[in-house]
Amino acid sequence: MSRTDRINRQALFGDETVDYRCPVEPDAGDTVLLRFRTAKENVVRVYLLQDNGERKEMRPASGEKQPVFAFYETEVSLTEEPYRYCFQIERDGEVCWYSKIGVSDQPEWNYAFQITPGFHTPDWAKGAVIYQIFVDRFRNGCPDNDVRDGEYLYVDGLPVKQVKVWEQTPETLDVNNFYGGDLQGVLEKLDYLEELGVEVIYFNPIFVSPSNHKYDIQDYDYIDPHYGKIINDISCQVQAGGTNREALGYITRVTDKVNLEASNAFFAEVVEEIHRRGMRVILDGVFNHCGSFNKWMDRERIYEEQDGYEKGAYVSGESPYRNFFRFTGGHWPYNVHYDGWWGHDTLPKLNYEESPELYAYIMKIGQKWVSEPYHVDGWRLDVAADLGHSEPFNHRFWKDFRKHVKAAKPDALILAEHYGNPAGWLMGDQWDTVMNYDAFMEPLTWFLTGLEKHSDERRDDLYADGELFFRTMAHEMSRFHVQSLQVAMNELSNHDHSRFLTRTNRMVGRIGSMGVEAAEQGIKKSVLRMAVTVQMTWPGAPTIYYGDEAGLCGWTDPDNRRTYPWGHEDTELIEFHKVMIGIHKAYSALKTGSLKPLAAGRHLIAYGRFNRENRLAVILNNSESPMWVEIPVWEIGVRPDGMMKRLLMTSGDSYDSREVDAPIKDGVLAMELPPESSVIFVESIEED
User: Fold this and answer.
1) Of 158, 157, 160, which is closest to residue 149 (Cα–Cα)?
2) Segment 495-545, tens digit of pLDDT
3) Cis preceding linkage at 26, omega within 30
4) Contact 545, 138 (CB under 8 A)
5) Cα 304 to chain centroid, rounded
């Protein structure tokens, strides 16, 4: 253990978890206890600094039994305004400061701790294990609702196809191919998900849509009958507006109100069963744009002559939905131009600024699905920062969306897809959190594989750099409030990026350039195990993309949407995930505890997760050679001459979950790590 006549900087620590800020999520008018840690008898004074220049000396905390550390504390009273602070530490003329990125020689106000009064995120989501399901590719539970060959034309005369062989890999052009996965298939595999340890199911879009990905929604009010129930199996095609050409759209069985209502009722039953098992449900909300098939636009003229539907904005300039879109030229009927998201005419951008009716409608949609009879537990928001035509309007929209959703279900989770700095939306009045690309997926992928998350770029200068990993993580995580970080969606893969197992081959490629087979060549399950070890021990909500746990490979979209390999699973990987999820759930420190880097180097990262209940150390060796490590676990409160217990070790093509004792000498855990390995230790607590 390090001892010095100077300030022991390794001992300095503070963060926003409950051991250092209580309450963690205060309201305006509350008094908050703030605490800071130093080495015992090592510093003279600790000050709490506010960004307005005020300085308050902290008092030594009483009643602490720590043999190594001293604690300082003070109270602050909150107004309605955000409260920003850092710490100043002094000893015999030596001064340093502490912020979200740790110790510095000057105040780092860009990385200040912040309290935003009234900002609460759902407790059930903190560290929750999420399972993402791309429904068409998970399981076909009801062949009667399958899309049929040629049932409708998607766009540009492209007929839809029913894929008869479940194991067939996706084609390069895949949007019109349907494998038959549905909600009945999910229902049939809830035992599997429950045994895996899943706590939340996140569904990719399930509303009516002509594509297999359904990010071009046709009707926000109904679950797609191809995922739900088809009662009226009507087989005639709709004729388009009195012309002789066939409609580019659904057979009426998926616009029939009987089928739509039956699908909604079935979805309510599915959610009820998921809840009965103690799990939650998150839906995908695609509110920036819809599909050209949408009943409001009706470019494909599906609804034009159907009873119960108004004329779409593409069909008539007098449509009640005229201002739902921004039209840029042409003339009605059937020859008008409109704004499409990123120029895609199949994805008309929704025009909220000029349509109070649309604005109010989507607010009701936000409430509808979290309310009776569906009781969904939250929304994942697609391309959320793109919504609207200006950033000020975007923020206004999400403020109102939050108010409406939380009014209907106060503990609903609002989680946004976002790349880049999310801080402007994470102020307690808009999103709860984000899909964690910048502060999880990307830094971990660079460290373990040296590849960009699409497998589009290889950067050997970023590969295996442990110090860069921690610097990047600290910088990106500083943009979150702790309550946002603890519910952030920490993924290794998803429907937009290559499968992580494919990234372990360190090859740049896509399905069109490399072919399907190359995605499975040269892969390393040892590296995937290391990634899962970090995923299950890092702050946030670990999110498994369906099939990752079973060994699925795949380049980026569409190859990342292969079907779940029922009957051909990698059972060893599944069992490994069960073990890791079990460890994640067993220790409160892994859900809401503190994080502290302990060691970093070439191919090496080590960090601690700790709170008053438990202290864990996680170590990774990402090289192909053994590595001797000496980890200063005293920094996370492990007794200097105590004992830790190994919970898990991964190496090569195996893992070992037998518990093994590891003695600590002078606060250091020393051991030899096998090649491409990860290990988790927890302190063995002796009864006083």
Assistant:
1) 160
2) 999 999 999 999 999 999 999 999 999 999 999 999 999 999 999 999 999
3) no
4) no
5) 39
Q: Helix crossing, 356-368 with 391-408: angle to 10°?
A: 40
User: In the numeric block, which tokens belong to residue 487?
Assistant: 């519910």
The count of other CB atoms within 10 Å of the CB of residue 360 is 13
DSSP string covering 675-687: TTEEEEEEEPPPP
Task: Report yes or no: 129 and 200 within 8 Å, Cβ to Cβ.
Answer: yes
Strand, helix or coil at 231?
Answer: coil
List, for residues 536-589, the tens digit of each pLDDT value: 999 999 999 999 999 999 999 999 999 999 999 999 999 999 999 999 999 999
In angstroms, the CA 584 to CA 607 distance is: 15
Decide: 239 and 305 in contact? Cβ < 8 Å. yes
The whole-angstrom separation of Cα 556 and Cα 25 is 38
The DSSP symbol for 173 reads S
Per-residue pLDDT at 237 exceeds 70:
no
Distance CA 362, CA 128 (A): 28
Would you say 486 and 436 are in contact if contact means Cβ atoms under 8 Å apart? Answer: no
Distance spanning both ends of the chain, measured CA to CA: 23
Helices (H), 32-173: none
Phi, psi of 471 (to 5 degrees): -65, -45
Residue 25's Cβ-side half-sphere holds a number of Cα atoms within 13 Å equal to 17
Summarised one tens digit per residue, pLDDT across range 99-152 is 999 999 999 999 999 999 999 999 999 999 999 999 999 999 999 999 999 888
Q: How far apart are CA 387 and CA 562, in angstroms?
A: 30
Backbone torsions φ then ψ of 11, nearest 5 degrees:
-85, -20
CA 10-12-16 angle, to 5 degrees, is 130
- DSSP alpha helix (H) spans, 277-378: 356-368
List b or e across 164-179, with b for residues whose CB sees 16 or more CB atoms inside 10 angstroms.
eebeebbeeebbbbbb
Instruction: Go through the chain and tell me how many residues it has.
Output: 688
Tokens 């750099």 belong to 465
Q: What angle do CA 202, 204, 205 make, to 5 degrees?
A: 125
In single-letter form, the type of residue at position 31 comes to T
CB 346 within 8 A of CB 155: yes
Side chain identity, residue 74: T
The distance from CA 393 to its chain's CA centroid, rounded to whole angstroms, is: 25
User: Could you count the other beta carbons within 10 Å of the beta carbon of residue 40?
Assistant: 15
Residues β-bridged to residue 609: 595, 616
- Asked if residues 688 and 643 have their Cβ atoms less than 8 Å apart, the reply is no
Residue 559, CA distances (Å) to 169, 327, 397, 669 in order: 7, 35, 34, 43
Question: How many helices, marked H, and strands, marked E, lie in the chain?
Answer: 13, 33
> How many angstroms separate the most distant Cα atoms in the chain?
91
Q: What is the spatial distance between Cα 166 and Cα 104, in angstroms, rounded to a whole number?
A: 56
Element (H, E) at 534: helix 525-535
CB atoms closer than 10 angstroms to residue 652: 13
| Main-chain dihedrals φ then ψ at residue 174, nearest 5 degrees | -120, -10
